[in-house]
Amino acid sequence: xxxxxxxxxxxxxxxxxxxxxxxxxxxxxxxxxxxxxxxxxxxxxxxxxxxxxxxxxxxxxxxxxxxxxxxxxxxxxxxxxxxxxxxxxxxxxxxxxxxxxxxxxxxxxxxxxxxxxxxxxxxxxxxxxxxxxxxxxxxxxxxxxxxxxxxxxxxxxxxxxxxxxxxxxxxxxxxxxxxxxxxxxxxxxxxxxxxxxxxxxxxxxxxxxxxxxxxxxxxxxxxxxxxxxxxxxxxxxxxxxxxxxxxxxxxxxxxxxxxxxxxxxxxxxxxxxxxxxxxxxxxxxxxxxxxxxxxxxxxxxxxxxxxxxxxxxxxxxxxxxxxxxxxxxxxxxxxxxxxxxxxxxxxxxxxxxxxxxxxxxxxxxxxxxxxxxxxxxxxxxxxxxxxxxxxxxxxxxxxxxxxxxxxxxxxxxxxxxxxxxxxxxxxxx
Length: 429
Known about the structure:
Layout: E1 4-8, H1 16-24, E2 29-32, E3 41-45, E4 48-52, E5 64-67, H2 75-87, E6 97-100, H3 108-120, H4 133-141, H5 158-174, H6 182-197, E7 200-201, H7 203-212, E8 217-220, H8 246-249, E9 260-266, E10 269-271, H9 284-292, E11 305-307, E12 309-310, H10 311-321, E13 325-329, E14 339-348, E15 351-353, H11 360-365, E16 367-374, H12 391-404, E17 408-412, E18 420-422
Parallel strand pairs: 1-8, 1-9, 2-5, 2-8, 5-6, 6-7, 9-13, 12-14, 13-17
Antiparallel strand pairs: 3-4, 10-11, 14-15, 14-16, 17-18
């Protein structure tokens, strides 16, 4: 049996939660390997809706769920999210939940800096969630992070605080803010330390044991490839690598462990926040997509920008991330359109392009080249086999496969777990 790595192949918000939940019910372990609590996953199981932003989706089904070392962890948010899920009847114990003890922590000073920078950025705003994710990753790379394992050694934290505060106090001074209150920070960490430490361990060892037993591991990505700090629409990106290769470094397992790479792709395109968006619609069609797709961020509640499917971007994402097959979601949102459009290329100052350029000015100037197809009036909602789909919907899906040069592994036709057309089982590749 193969392991499976799930990533978003657009700008996030592709419906990964439902797909990961569907796969998690058949996995033996689920691992988050990057990002922070800026990544929202909504799971609909029966009449119960769960909103996760840090915990792996497997926790809802009682599957062993692991937060890998590639994640930046807000310990106070973790405590809140665990309490919220427990209130919904989800059991969370050290038996089914583990946190890498080398995870960097998101601290109050990171949230402060995130907000101060965005407020001062003017037209240069990136549109962050303001949760301190980026500054926490900066401290990790700058070798001044406080990590989960440090919570067990708070009485000897002074040297690390010296490095951390030397950096942050200078930045805070530039914003006319007082220096970090070190005593208050340590006290806040002390209050949450025992809660976090009950789950902390070298998760690479636990995963090695799981893998050696022949169990199936599901690696759960956050955000999408177009938000990757290297390969996305820089600088309007997240602060981590969102591509499938990060599953190895962000979990402590080798690159041969990631298995089938499933790219989650929405049947149209959305993004939250600032940044270029070639197929964005500012008309009635865009509004219709947003309303029918309930396009609001799980974490922020921000309205998502909507546009037609961009095959150029998805083909690029699939190539960069080594996608084996895609899961196409939200096809039902396109029900009732007279015509649907797919972007097949770009024009940039008179030149035809079959890829998305790296420079932000070029990204902002490209004009989409569209292919138009007949829509369908019948409903696709709840379809569980090809026979349940209208002929034009099947043609649309087949054309997407051709253009992105990647096969469809499954099609999702509603938020419900079982409303899925399975073409190829990722766990049996």
